[in-house]
Amino acid sequence: MIKKISLLILSVSVFIFVSCSDQKNGTVSASTVKNDPEAFKIVSSKTFGKSFNFLIVSDWGWNGFKYQQEVADQMEKTADSVGAKFVATCGDNFQVSGIASTQDPLWMVNFENVYKGLSLQTEWFPVLGNHDYRGSPQAEIDYSKISRRWRLTEHYYTFVKKINDSISARFIFLDTPPLVAEYQKKPIEYPEISKQDTAKEIKWLSEVLKNSKEQWILVFGHHPVFSASKKHGDTPEMIKRVKPLLDKYHAQFYFCGHDHDFQHLHEKGKNVDYIVTGTGGETRPASSNDLSVFSKSEPGFSVVSIKADSMRICFVGTKGNIIYSYKRSYK
Fold first, then answer.
1. Tens-digit pLDDT profile for residues 133-156
2. Tell me, which fold does domain 51-329 have in CATH?
3. What are the distances in angstroms from CA 125 to CA 149, 191, 247, 326?
4. Sequence ranges of the domains in the chain
């Protein structure tokens, strides 16, 4: 009897220790997430079926070091198995100080020679991050004239993709670093920031959203609107200037990086799901808050799969494992 009681006490102690450890590491355990039959399995050609699929990677520019090459290698396998249409990036394409020109050797050691798999020789749609602004953001734009896959043609841009005969998706890519006051105060570190017309960008975003008739509206930027991370967290300028437009015009998703973890956040009573996918090269400890649906620190990328009336996003690790899966309709 005494032995059984001792074992029970030990089991409870271990449970409490693990639970506290999860909270300390800022993760939301699998038991608190909606059950998905595919969650925590391996991504394969059968995972999504016949869908419009693409990948998202962010904060990836580490010249093949840290976890960048491992993430890139798995991206190649996953892009091939799911038939990825393109790759979207959420900035910090070149750590730590951007690039100098279109002929900068970093293009080879950081991009071309890292994401070299055949399945990744598709269109890449990037945004600019704060580290990209430490170099020449214009050089990243100009590289679109040289590369067959690098499609950063403007500081901010939009396009539409047809999902089927009746459903379309609007993709909107923002230039968020100029919106953040912190960088405006550092002209030596970020020499190109003050040259950007943020009022013009916000007006452009408002017009694009207002005139969008597509069933799906997906917005991409580097800086989070909401984030539970203790490193950066919420971006007040994004909450003030971008969030009201996302709410007003019924965007479904805002994707970003900047914080080096996986997060899904949702504001109660609102339409927008906020996704942080900043683990393309380096990870930092994850945290959670009242808006957190899921958070975890693990290197990887995201797969987005769009069907006629539903969309699914999966956080994927370097072994092809599905870390987290979420599905919703556009209505």
1. 999 999 999 999 999 999 999 999
2. Purple Acid Phosphatase; chain A, domain 2 (3.60.21)
3. 8, 24, 24, 23
4. 51-329
